Amino acid sequence: MRIIDFFRSRIIIFLIQIVILSFFIYGLGYIFNINFDVGVLVERQVIIQFLANYVLFDDLSGLCFIYIGWIIISLFPIILYNNFKKAYSMNLITFFFPNFFLYIFLWRYSREYFDSNFQFHFLQTILLGVVIVIFSIGISIILKIITKDKIRTQIEDASTFSAKVKSICPKCGTKFDSIPRYCYKCNLDLSINIEEKNSNDR
Fold it and tell me: How confident is the model over 83-110, as pLDDT tens digits?
């Protein structure tokens, strides 16, 4: 299996995205505080808190932080796949996992907090998911346009170059798609003629 195929596998991309997001969140010390129900075990609080830090926010600075983090990791599938369908589906898969387990754990172990905050947090989740999809599609399309323009430019440059290298034997009129040293038909030394032409152009 080629290296590029290895990195294109969804599991590897998912792990890379989560690792990058973890470094971003915990490296910069972001924490979303949850008012847990009374009696929730510390171990469960740690797991829920860990998941909440990936997706939840309660003010404008938190919103900016979470959105920037998810936009950064959304770039990885966009650049790797260069296909908006694959890019946004991969980003949604990555986005789905922390949200799914966060809501499951909150519903099961901190029901009062879940019932009182579900609508607000779920709206945040939907909006962030929509932004990720729009961003993934938009950037993928822009990159595709840029890539097509680059390829078109390279083709035009190659055509221009190939047009320039065409030459004609001054003795027998044989046409060449390159600049050979000798004419294969009359054996004229074409390099002498090219040197004379270059000196005359000067």
Answer: 888 888 899 999 999 999 999 999 999 9
Spacing of C-alpha 172 from chain mean position: 56
Query: Which SS3 state, helix, strand or coil, does residue 57 take?
Result: coil
Beta bridge partners of 168: 175
User: How is residue 76 written in tokens?
Assistant: 């990885």
Other CB atoms within a 10 A radius of the CB of residue 125 amount to: 19
What would the two tokens of residue 144 be? 């595709």
Which residues are paired to 96 by β-bridges? none
Grouping H, G, I as helix, E, B as strand and the rest as coil, residue 71 is: helix
Instruction: Report the amino acid identity of residue 100.
Output: F
pLDDT at 122: 92
Q: Is the pLDDT of residue 8 over 90?
A: no
Query: What are the b/e assignments for 153-171, b being 16+ CB within 10 Å?
Result: eeeeeeeeeeeeeebebee
Q: Closest by alpha carbon to 32, among 94, 100, 102?
A: 102
Question: Where exactly are the structural domains of the chain?
Answer: 3-157, 166-201
Structure tokens at 83: 């296909």
CA-to-CA dists, residue 196 to 12, 105, 182, 201, angstroms: 61, 84, 15, 9
